[in-house]
Amino acid sequence: MAVDASWVRSWLDRSAAMIAENRQELIRLDREIGDGDHGENMDRGFQAATSKIADAADDANPADLLKLVASTLISTVGGAAGPLYGTAFLKAAGAVSGKDSLEPADIVDLLTAARDGIVLRGKAEVGDKTMVDAWSLAVDAAADAANAGADVASVLAEAARAAEEGAAATEPLVARKGRASYLGERAIGHRDPGAQSTALVLRVAADTAKDSA
């Protein structure tokens, strides 16, 4: 089983709906350790990306769509999330450039490039209490699944599961990056909002692939 541009379109449409549904929760998480705008910014950015995707050419390939999402997020999402998510989608696009369909190994390449883009832009590492904690576990789980012979849907399912675990694992951490780092130990017990939005977006990616299988 492989996925194509129709998966990317559905993934983004459903991600926008998921972010909208969880907007207030993301705002709450960010208010506890940040400036409280993550949910609002993500909602605005993904709604704008959905609109752009709807206007994309019918023959656009996955990389074309991912690149369009990247530029839209960078231009519409405020705070740190815009550059981070925008870079993630831009690097993901580069990893699958020229491909009309994506196999398990391509999904791993896409996720790895997205994670590496976030690390490059944000200078964060695993354990810093950022979205990298979710992305890195997702990449490792996806790679393990692909190496074991899993199909695309299963690779994405493992990535989503690991991202959810990574998001939860940020709760006991002291933040070392971003606005939350100013809180010191007061950030302990609070989940990183970027890690949570990562888990939401990757869960939708997995569910979309499963539904299209």
From TrEMBL:
A GO molecular function held by the record: glycerone kinase activity
Domain DhaL: 6-207
Superkingdom of this protein's organism: Bacteria
Keyword Kinase: yes
Ranges in a coiled coil: none
GO biological process, one term: glycerol catabolic process
CC terms in the record's Gene Ontology section: cytosol
Keyword presence, Transit peptide: no
Protein name: Dihydroxyacetone kinase DhaL subunit
Species in which this protein is naturally found: Paramicrobacterium agarici
